[in-house]
Design goal:
Layout lengths: L28 H4 L3 E7 L5 E8 L9 E5 L7 E2 L3 H18 L5 E3 L2 H11 L4 H5 L1 E2 L8 E2 L1 H4 E4 L10 E4 L9 E5 L2 E2 L2 H14 L100 E7 L3 E6 H5 L2 E4 L6 H15 L3 E5 L5 H11 L6 E5 L8 H7 L8 H18 L7 H21 L5 H10 L9 H5 L4 H10 L4 H17 L5 H16 L6 H5 L7 H5 L3 E5 L2 H25 L11 E6 L8 H7 L1 H4 L1 E7 L2 H8 L3 H10 L3 E4 L5 H11 L1 E11 L8 H9 L5 E11 L19 E7 L11 E7 L5
Parallel strand pairs: 1-10, 3-4, 14-19, 14-20, 15-17, 15-18, 16-17, 18-19
Antiparallel strand pairs: 1-2, 2-3, 5-9, 6-7, 8-9, 10-11, 12-13, 20-23, 21-22, 23-24
Helix pairs in contact: 2-3, 2-6, 11-12, 11-17, 11-20, 12-15, 12-16, 12-17, 13-17, 23-24
Length: 779
């Protein structure tokens, strides 16, 4: 078996994912520094250790140790023998003990002896695995003594031989376990360990004795002499009864029931049990580890052939200025120029977020990442998958002064609401509807945040749907009696902890009980139903688990080098896929803007890939593109033609789409049969002066006599005149776009396109040029 790691960097970008096993624990310093021990198992019926990878740190790419079963490189190869079994069981037990919050020591087992013998060999495979390379490029050094400690580790087998891990150097959260290339979750580690023991006929773990302190000799139990029984345990001392007071104290008055109210107030509905609060996101998921890469703005990403011996350089700076790729279905925009630019991003180490519309796009990106050596940095978010982002918890808990504000949650939902109403062809986009929707969302989020408990789309939808739109309660107390709705109001009242909380609750109650009833019935009904429909899109089968549960993936992970593909294509998941992907896009954009202070060539660039981008367009895109360069992000917009944007964006589609296109500097035009798009592209390339010749031909004059006619037949008179004049014409005529090659074997896998960007100087000082992109038939 050949090793897949040659000329590849370690999967350092997945560093934050290990926190999924310890979601409520601050990440250790070794984990933040990039130290990892990864065990890869395969064979579903009889799990075997296939690969061991040890990353000492994330400072030097391609410098890490690994062993692989049957590897062609014999220095990294091992056979399935006692040592892999011992090493697997040792670290699986160590991880299980860490999940239980206890240290771990292995003593007096065949596995302990096998592992101890392997540690002793200074030139063995275990020695070659645990090697660190210093940042200054100095000599490497093995870290076996830094990892393994115990009693009589280097000695002969015996009852006193024990081994444990120095958790300060390699804590449990630095371990990652993969089975069939899928990372195990916290709940799967212990069952997998039991399965491993059963598959290899290993005894169950004995009573674990933990050392008093790392580096100290653990106390071993003393064996009893044969033939003797252990002494009985000492008797338990009797417990003296507590003295009874001579004079009974008067009974304390019982507290009023939980939902009791003073005599002058009507009883309020019983407060239902509160669901768990918003799950806390591991702070490590908000951090961006310092990168060792270097990406100056003028570094070339692509060199496009120009003339015979020259190249045009498309740089990182050009990428930050945005890209538009247009072409009809089958024109090769994805497999031609799209492949070329995406390949350059991946090979340069960009992180990226990929939105999907059609089935099969996730598979395309899997093949593309494997082609570029980035398969270990690929994360696919899919229904029922491992990777999740609680979008409301993320918006409420992200670092910065804006976290947890109802106005930010309202902006997030407003962005989604506009996309939702547009996709459902709702015409309620006037300012009065938007203002009414913002007021309703602000009042709702204030109640939920102050009342505590889980803020989920499911609970928000139930709250909004229970708000009356026909028969409005006459008094404030009647609002508190409404099922579901009144319980939220009651919890907010009980959750007041400060004067500011009191002000916000009073403001929210005043909105619902006094302002909301005064809204015109048409607006009140439309706004409530529109917001409910947007919330409801997040409640489909398996969708809440993706966006309302625990979090093990955040936009900051993309900025650390991951490529996140949202495998929820619109053609398959419809409105739910649109809402989840739009939520990811918005949070990714705002996270980039929040980290704009991290500038300079050492900050890793990222890309946002939007195929059929008209579906995902939002009003926030205008502001986002304005600051894309300082955010070090390349936004790639792919679409078929102008009308697809115009139709999707509604009445103001022309101005809005043209504004979007105007902010995208690099433009690529493939084969297209849409006249309006071709005319627009031709105008974009401009006009040039061409010399046009005009030919006129007059009939010969009639012959005056027989001899004149004979002369004209022998020497006809010249009746043709030629005139020349200068005319302005399109530099690229619209019909030229219909003639561009579309790839495939019939075109030798060549895809033609016209490309332009600001600063381009091609032949004849043109600001555009015609290119041929080569398809990869294997992708």
């Amino acid at each position: 078996m050949g090793t897949p790691f040659k000329n590849q960097k370690p999967a350092s970008a997945t560093a934050l994912l290990a926190g999924g096993l310890f979601p409520h624990q601050a990440p250790s310093k070794p984990r933040l520094a990039g130290r990892r021990l990864k065990l890869f198992f395969d064979c579903l019926d009889r799990p075997k250790l296939d690969l061991i990878e040890y990353d000492a740190n994330d400072r030097l790419p391609r410098k890490f140790g690994f062993l692989q079963r049957g590897c062609e490189d014999k220095t990294h190869s091992f056979t399935w023998s006692e040592m892999p079994v011992a090493l697997s069981l040792f670290f699986l037990d160590y991880l299980c003990a860490g999940l239980a919050g206890k240290p771990f020591v292995s003593r007096r087992t065949p596995q302990t002896n096998t592992l101890g013998d392997a540690i002793v060999k200074s030139n063995g495979k275990l020695f070659e695995l645990f090697v660190e390379y210093p940042p200054d490029g100095g000599l490497r050094s093995a870290r076996l003594e830094s990892i393994f400690k115990g009693d009589n580790v280097n000695g002969k087998n015996g009852p006193e031989r024990s081994i444990f891990v120095q958790s300060e150097y390699l804590p449990p959260d630095c371990l990652e376990i993969f089975w069939e290339r899928r990372p195990l979750t916290r709940d799967e580690v212990a069952p997998f360990t039991e399965l491993f023991r059963k598959a290899w006929n290993l005894p169950p773990p004995s009573v674990v004795e933990f050392p008093a302190g790392e580096g100290k000799k653990p106390d071993a139990p003393k064996p009893e002499p044969e033939g003797k029984t252990p002494p009985p345990p000492p008797p338990t001392p009797p417990v003296a009864p507590e003295p009874t007071p001579a004079t009974p104290e008067p009974a304390a008055p019982k507290p009023p029931p939980e939902n009791a109210t003073p005599n002058n107030e009507p009883p309020r509905p019983k407060v239902e049990p509160e669901p768990p609060a918003l799950p806390r996101i591991d702070p490590g998921f908000f951090e961006i580890p310092e990168s060792v890469g270097y990406w100056p703005d003028l570094a070339p990403l692509i060199e496009l052939p120009f003339g015979e011996d020259d190249y045009l350089q498309w740089t990182i700076k050009n990428a930050f200025e945005g890209m538009l790729i247009m072409g009809r279905t089958g024109s090769g925009k994805t497999s031609g120029s799209g492949f070329t630019f995406a390949e350059s991003f991946l090979k340069m180490g960009f992180g990226g977020l990929v939105l999907t519309v059609k089935k099969g796009e996730a598979g395309h990106w899997r093949r593309l990442c494997a082609h570029c050596g980035r398969e270990k940095d690929l994360v696919v978010v899919s229904r029922g998958g491992f990777f999740k982002l609680n979008v409301l918890a993320y918006e409420a808990q992200h670092p910065g002064r804006s976290a947890g504000l109802s106005q930010n949650l309202t902006s997030f939902c407003r962005n989604l609401l506009r996309i939702s109403s547009r996709s459902q062809r709702s015409q309620h986009s006037e300012e009065i509807w938007e203002q009414a929707g913002d007021e309703l969302l602000n009042a709702t989020f204030d109640l939920f945040l102050i009342g505590g408990g889980g803020v989920t789309f499911d609970r928000l939808a139930k709250f909004v749907s229970s708000a009356p739109t026909d028969k409005i309660p006459p008094t404030e107390e009647d609002w508190f009696k409404i099922p579901v709705f009144g319980a939220v109001l009651e919890r907010a009242k009980r959750g007041i902890a400060s004067a500011e909380d009191q002000r916000l609750v009073d403001k929210a109650v005043d909105y619902w009980c006094h302002y909301y009833p005064t809204l015109p019935a048409r607006i009140r009904s439309s706004v409530t139903l529109g917001i409910y429909a947007m919330f409801d899109a997040f409640r489909g089968r398996d969708i809440p688990d993706l966006i309302s549960g625990d979090t093990n993936m955040t936009p900051e992970c993309i900025m650390s080098g991951l490529i996140v593909v949202l495998d929820l294509p619109l053609k398959e998941f419809g409105q739910a896929g649109l809402m989840v992907q739009s939520a990811w896009k918005y949070l990714f954009q705002t996270a980039l803007e929040r980290h704009q202070n991290l500038t300079g060539p050492k900050r890793r660039p990222v890309f946002l890939w939007e195929d059929e981008a008209q579906y995902f367009f939002s009003d926030h895109d205008h502001h986002f593109q304005d600051t894309a360069r300082s955010s070090r992000v390349c936004r790639v917009v792919l679409t078929q033609n102008l009308s697809s944007f115009y139709k999707e964006l509604g009445r103001d589609g022309v101005e809005t789409a043209n504004s979007v296109f105007g902010n995208l500097n690099t433009k690529v035009f493939h084969n297209n049969s849409h006249p309006e798009t071709n005319e627009w592209a031709a105008k974009h390339f401009g006009s040039e002066i061409h010399m046009r010749q005009t030919y006129s031909h007059a009939p010969p004059p009639p012959a005056r006599d027989f001899f004149d006619g004979l002369r004209q037949s022998i020497d006809p008179p010249n009746t043709t005149s030629v005139s020349a004049a200068e005319h302005w014409e399109y530099a690229v005529r619209p019909e030229e776009f219909n003639k561009l090659r579309t790839g495939g074997p019939e075109n030798n896998y060549l895809v033609d396109a016209y490309i332009t960007w600001m600063g381009l100087s091609a032949e004849n000082d043109r600001h555009f040029t015609k290119m041929a992109f080569l398809q990869n038939p294997k992708l």
